[in-house]
Amino acid sequence: MGLIEELQNLSDTIKEYSDQDLDEANTEMSCLEPFIELLGYQRTLTDMQRQYPADMRGGAKPKTVDYAIKKDDAPIMIVECKQLGEDLDAHTGQLEDYFAAVSEARFGILTDGRLYRFYTDLDKPNLMDSKPFLEFDLFDIQRSLVAELERFTKSRFDLDEALAAASDLKYSKAIQQFLTGQLESPTEDFVNHITSATSIAINTPERRQRITEIIQQTLKAFKDGGADSPSPDPESDNGGETDESSSPTVDLDSYEAIAPDETWRSKKIGAFTFNGKEREVKRWNEFLEKFCEILSEDYSDRFEEVLQVKPHHFSKNPDTDFPKGADPKLIGSTGFYVQAAINNNVKKEIVKDLVEHFGCNMPVLYVDKN
To answer: Residue 30 contacts by C-beta under 8 Å, 6 or more apart in sequence?
Structure first.
């Protein structure tokens, strides 16, 4: 079993703890330590030392960081753990102090057992950067981030390589955040740069507005994995109408179809069909979200009935109705949210109950071929 499958199994286990209000000690034992073991470090003093000294000032009761992960009997990472569901933003300063005290370790991790924030000192030596270079969420496992995480496994860890990767990730993340901001609301300078570089003339306010919209749509197309034109040219003959027949299709032949009642464990979903519609997805959480979107489109006049069928998993007020760590996903433009941070068996029951209630057929699931 590969690391990504092992992480998914751990994720499924932790999701079962989400409503149990684990304290810090149980979070360490049930969530953090299994995660560290998946990276290849054993629960021994040579690999994983608890309550590692981290006090620059001394005192009657010296401060300690929760864990030091060691290699060749020296700390390479320190880890501060809070209880599952805790707001990590409130504890960044604490990790900063420990990081400065344990100068041998170049990496610090702040976690609640589910979300792992990786820090280093790229800006100033021995002073922890204010922002993490990597955030890994066990409830939203992404292959690209697992590849980065593998650099920190015991068998692969190399300090210079890890620091170089951290630098690349930091700057890549900054660029992504900038482009995401432009996707949401392109600045005038950004629009001017694009139009200048592509020799697009803007001679009226209306044309500037339309070009701005096209830039947003094009950025979204790249973000979603496609590079095709998102919409016709504003001066084309069809008046700006889109051709629905040109919608991309899913290559279902590259996947293996499974029955909905088969086990989903250790399977990676790639696509599904439901009510005559095909959707390509990357994760089971995304499948549940897209399934609900199709349901809301096809049964728009009745969709609010989901609150009667599954009141614990749908809400219009997720902040108050859902537990911490629920990972609510907005369903299209309905205003309804579905709780995504649940294990796959619960997802399966939600789909089954909704299909039965609305009187439609079960979706056909397509997973990666073994």
So the answer is: 13, 14, 17, 22, 113
pLDDT tens digits, the chain, 370 residues: what are they? 689 899 999 999 998 887 778 899 999 999 999 999 999 999 999 999 999 999 866 665 789 999 999 998 899 999 999 999 889 999 999 999 999 999 999 999 999 999 999 999 999 999 999 999 999 999 988 888 999 999 999 999 999 999 999 999 888 888 888 888 888 888 989 989 988 888 888 888 888 888 888 888 887 777 665 444 444 444 444 444 444 433 445 677 778 888 767 777 678 888 999 988 889 988 888 899 999 999 999 999 999 999 999 988 999 988 888 887 778 899 988 999 998 888 777 888 899 999 999 998 889 898 887 6
Cα(43)–Cα(45) distance, integer angstroms: 7
> Could you give the CA distance from residue 94 to residue 102 in angstroms, rounded to a whole number?
13
Instruction: Provide the whole-model pTM.
Output: 0.57
Residue 215's closest CA among 203, 198, 240, 236? 198
CATH superfamily, region 252-368: Replication modulator SeqA, C-terminal DNA-binding domain (1.20.1380.10)
| Residue 210 near residue 202 (C-beta atoms within 8 A) | no
SS3 content of the chain, % helix, strand, coil (to 5): 40, 20, 40
Contacts of 226 (CB under 8 A, 6+ apart): 248
Nearest CA among 104, 90, 42, 46 for reference residue 70: 46
Q: For the chain, give every domain's residue range.
A: 3-173, 185-236, 252-368
Alpha-carbon distance 160 to 154, whole Å? 14
Is the distance from CB of 76 to CB of 159 less than 8 angstroms?
yes
Q: Give the Cα separation of 98 and 369 in Å (integer).
A: 46
CA distance 179 to 220: 10
DSSP 94-139: HHHHHHHH-TT--EEEEESSSEEEEE--SSBTTB--SS-SEEEETT
What's the CATH fold of domain 3-173? tt1808, chain A (3.90.1570)
